Amino acid sequence: MRYEITIGNNSREVILEALKSATGETYELKSGLATNKIEILKREKNVIYISIGRKAYSVFQVKRSPSSVVFILNGRSVKAEIRSRLENKSSLISSSAASASETVTSNFPAKIVKVNGKVGDYMKRGETIMILEAMKMEAQIKVPNDCVVKEILVKEGQMVEKGKILARLGFG
Hints:
Elements: E1 2-7, E2 10-19, E3 26-31, E4 34-43, E5 47-52, E6 55-64, E7 68-73, E8 76-84, E9 101-105, E10 110-115, E11 122-123, E12 128-134, E13 137-142, E14 147-152, E15 159-160, E16 165-170
Antiparallel strand pairs: 1-2, 1-8, 2-3, 3-4, 4-5, 5-6, 6-7, 7-8, 9-16, 10-12, 10-15, 11-14, 12-13, 14-16
């Protein structure tokens, strides 16, 4: 998943990908030529303990929204504004070819926080069908075009793997 992260006046594009691991809490972060492995060591209510390379950090979440997070990283206050760099629907659905039924899949391991669509609902392009949470950040899954919800395959509170089909949509 591509993001533009802004901290203070500095912005950079990063790619965050979940890696296969026993805990499912390991990620690869690519920024420019640098690549770092991030591992979630422990989670508490508003604190995440992570390791990046050979260093451990405590991250205290102060405030969160779908597009930003304010946190304290080892005593330093940081505000990060995050905007998904998903420009086309092929990254939200499993097939780029037009068909009578499309599937919405998860691009990363996550927890289903909210399901907005119900079977039979008509949704307009850009409406949020569900909200996922990963690494204490929320991601809104939006429908790529006007559609009818054909099937919802997950429940709120459920954990899903990368590639899991979340819903089926009908177009046309």
